[in-house]
């Protein structure tokens, strides 16, 4: 019966979720699963195919099937939340690794995003975000120097938003966001713990102050298996 492979699928998913099958552990072979569940090879293969489709396992040719980490962090699509605030809500150990901090000018693309002339200056801040011991976000932030005249390593490793609001006294108001799924770049694979994935979720933010001044452009690159992008919607 077709329902058999669904029952096997649900049983394995439950074992993964409760920790009986740990991330990166190898699943039993098809023959062992056939014996354990007393079903045909075709039924087992249907269950494994569904597990792979839904991101629960990764099949590696010649090696077998391996359990993926199904625990995902909620990333709010609406609202403006700093990584420090987001990590606090997740309750997982987090760390920020500063890769670049410099003033730039003459970059046509970035200056266009910030609505600046090529002669204007902007801060470029590149940070890797580590959660639960895994590097899973690459953040590239650009700030208009007119509004953020100075940045330090300590500020960037703590919270730039906290510095802007509490030290500079500016009020961050709203943002325009763009979500896309793209092919991972060599940079993504080099700086993140990317494992076997080849796609990445890119969130672009254009962030404005209370007086509608655009002060920040951000490109935040997320490993696709570790986040749920969530929102609350109401029909008007």
TrEMBL record:
Gene3D superfamilies: Chorismate lyase-like, Winged helix-like DNA-binding domain superfamily/Winged helix DNA-binding domain. One of its GO terms (biological process) is negative regulation of DNA-templated transcription. Keywords: DNA-binding, Repressor, Transcription, Transcription regulation. This is Trehalose operon repressor. The gene is treR_2. Residues 2-70 form the HTH gntR-type domain. Transmembrane segments: none annotated. One of its GO terms (molecular function) is DNA binding. PANTHER family: HTH-TYPE TRANSCRIPTIONAL REGULATOR TRER, MANNOSYL-D-GLYCERATE TRANSPORT/METABOLISM SYSTEM REPRESSOR MNGR-RELATED. It comes from the Bacteria.
């Amino acid at each position: 019966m077709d329902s058999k492979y669904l029952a096997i699928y649900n049983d394995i998913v439950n074992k993964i979720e409760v920790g009986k099958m740990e991330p990166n552990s190898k699943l039993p072979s098809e023959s062992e699963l056939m014996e354990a569940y007393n079903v045909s090879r075709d039924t087992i293969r249907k269950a494994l195919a569904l597990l792979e489709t839904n991101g629960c396992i990764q099949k590696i040719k010649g090696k077998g099937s391996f359990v993926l980490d199904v625990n995902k962090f909620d990333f709010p699509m609406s609202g403006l939340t700093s990584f420090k605030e987001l990590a606090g809500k997740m309750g997982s150990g987090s760390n920020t690794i500063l890769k670049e901090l410099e003033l730039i000018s003459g970059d046509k693309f970035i200056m266009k995003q910030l609505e600046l002339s090529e002669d204007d200056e902007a801060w470029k801040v590149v940070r890797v975000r580590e959660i639960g011991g895994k590097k899973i976000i690459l953040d590239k932030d650009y700030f208009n120097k007119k509004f953020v005249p100075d940045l330090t390593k300590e500020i960037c490793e703590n919270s730039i938003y906290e510095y802007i609001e509490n030290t500079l006294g500016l009020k961050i108001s709203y943002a325009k966001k763009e979500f896309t799924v793209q092919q991972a770049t060599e940079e993504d694979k080099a700086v993140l713990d990317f494992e076997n994935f080849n796609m990445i979720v890119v969130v672009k933010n254009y962030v404005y102050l209370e007086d509608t001044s655009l002060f920040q452009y951000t490109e935040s690159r997320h490993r696709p298996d570790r986040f749920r992008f969530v929102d609350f919607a109401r029909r008007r």
